[in-house]
Amino acid sequence: MKGEYYKTKESVDDYILLANDVNGKQLINKLEKVLLANSILLEIGSGPGSDWKILNKSYQVTGSDNSKEFLNHLGAAYPDGEFLELDAVTLTTNKKFDGIYSNKVLHHLKDNKLVDSLRRQYEILNPQGIVCHSFWKGEGSENFKGLFVNYHNEERISEFFSQDFEIISVQEYKEFEDSDSLLVIGKKSL
Ligand SMILES: C[S@@+](CC[C@H](N)C(=O)[O-])C[C@H]1O[C@@H](n2cnc3c(N)ncnc32)[C@H](O)[C@@H]1O
Questions:
Q1: Over the stretch 54-98, which tens digit does the pLDDT of each residue have?
Q2: Interaxial angle between packed helices 25-34 and 50-58, expressed in degrees from 0 to 180 and rounded to the nearest 10
Q3: Distance from residue 44's CA to the centre of ligand 1 (Å)
Q4: Is 87 in the pocket of ligand 1 (CB under 6 A)?
């Protein structure tokens, strides 16, 4: 079962049910303060599509995921949406974006892969482009349901982002418990 969660129909159905009442509205409100309406936005790891649906009201948003099962679900649930099969690290696309957003996706990357992902995001962003990504706050890493989960604190996550981005903010927020999460917003460095 290692690495299968998110990849099988059963686990995707399970996740969609579990995450039914949660979405990134509070994060998207923060993104909207720094990224103009109607900008071209990429969402990495759209999963069930709850955030994609909110983002789609303000932006020209392209959803994506590296799970074919989630992509099947997204295509069926939002037939007018644009969804790409993209891995968060390689981001193999010729498109350019004004912003890149993810909610609880990049914590599945080891530190060196997160740095690679941020470098690739820099390449596919237009000048002044914005990144907005959420993480679980904490120390160390673990395996959960066969998936790698990397925890970050403000200092370490700022170091990773500041290699390619001017940090606009790193804020704690509550997903399930006080201060269990971090939202990082940055602007492409010159
Ligand atoms: C915890 S879920 C979050 C889904 C959605 N963003 C949400 O807030 O409900 C993680 C999502 O990231 C996707 N994912 C995990 N690793 C990925 C990677 N390396 N590249 C692209 N997507 C990835 C999974 O398939 C899943 O849809």
A1: 999 999 999 999 999 999 999 999 999 999 999 999 999 999 999
A2: 30
A3: 7
A4: yes
* pTM of the complete model: 0.97
Residues 6+ apart with CB under 8 A from 58: 28, 32, 37, 38
Distances (CA, A) of 98 to 48, 125, 128: 23, 6, 8
pLDDT of residue 146: 87
| pLDDT tens digits, one per residue of 28-61 | 999 999 999 999 999 999 999 999 999 999 999 9
Cβ(107) – ligand 1 distance below 6 Å: no
Greatest C-alpha distance within the chain:
45
How many Å apart are CA 30 and CA 139, to the nearest integer? 25
Average of per-residue pLDDT across 142-162: 95
| Cβ(117) – ligand 1 distance below 6 Å | no
Q: CA 92 to CA 8: how far, in whole Å?
A: 23
Give CA–CA dist 23/121, Å, rounded: 23
